[in-house]
Amino acid sequence: MRDFYGTTLKNGLMLGTAQYPSPAIMVEAFKRSAACVATVSLRRESGNDRAGQDFWAIIRDLGVHVLPNTAGCHSVKEAVTTAHMAREVFGTKWIKLEVIGEEDTLQPDVFGLVEAARILTDDGFQVFPYTTEDLVVAGKLLDAGCEVLMPWGAPIGSGLGLNNPYGLKSMRAHFPDVPLVIDAGLGLPSQAAQAMEMGFDAVLLNTAVAKAGDPAAMAEAFAGAVHAGHLAAAADPMEPRDMAAPSTPVLGKAFLL
Ligand SMILES: CC(=O)[C@@H](O)[C@H](O)COP(=O)(O)O
User: Fold this and answer.
1) What is the pTM of this model?
2) What average pLDDT does the chain have?
3) 252 annotated binding-site participant
4) So what's the ipTM on this one?
5) For the chain, which terminus, N or C, has the lower number of CB atoms within 10 Å?
């Protein structure tokens, strides 16, 4: 597994913590999947009341790396303020940076994203930016100090999978040494396997697990798919070809004369 700001993760599955039918089911999903990163939104979970405090205690007890996020932030200011709160609450420099630019697609505002990333990295944060597959934006995020990139698979909550495999493959090829995480839009384990087969280092998802009929079973299914995709990528997959090629050797075959 690749290093994420100096931390080597034991697998490539990162799970969100929102929308589960109950906290107990969320905990079970983490257990059965052995996901090693939990992303948590400070804006959705209020820390001022008892329920918020209890929720954060549950997250801490998961025993996984906590990746606070700025989900729901629409401006640089909001995102930066939320990141500071997150650092205080969770005592981590990690922040999944979301600056949402458009309501229908929840597409990132990439201009605000780069600006916020620069402010936060200058301030000692280790930023995981939720971005698109745009290579120019990716380069600017790296220039701003990001050492990890999180391109979207598809719009958040859509479950559409990898909308632009060509663009994502280009991104992988363009930045071979940068840890890349597919973030958002996955609906099925096969899509997570596809991402890992393409050489991505991890996937982050929430809705597909939390909204499944059996979230814990779905989390386990995603874990299996991530593992299979990772193994496949490391096993140097064959190149697809246009023409048939017999897979059964003809040498030694009996011929009738
Ligand atoms: C939880 C979180 O951080 C989301 O913003 C994330 O991008 C997951 O998206 P899905 O819910 O589509 O998996």
Assistant:
1) 0.93
2) 94
3) no
4) 0.96
5) C
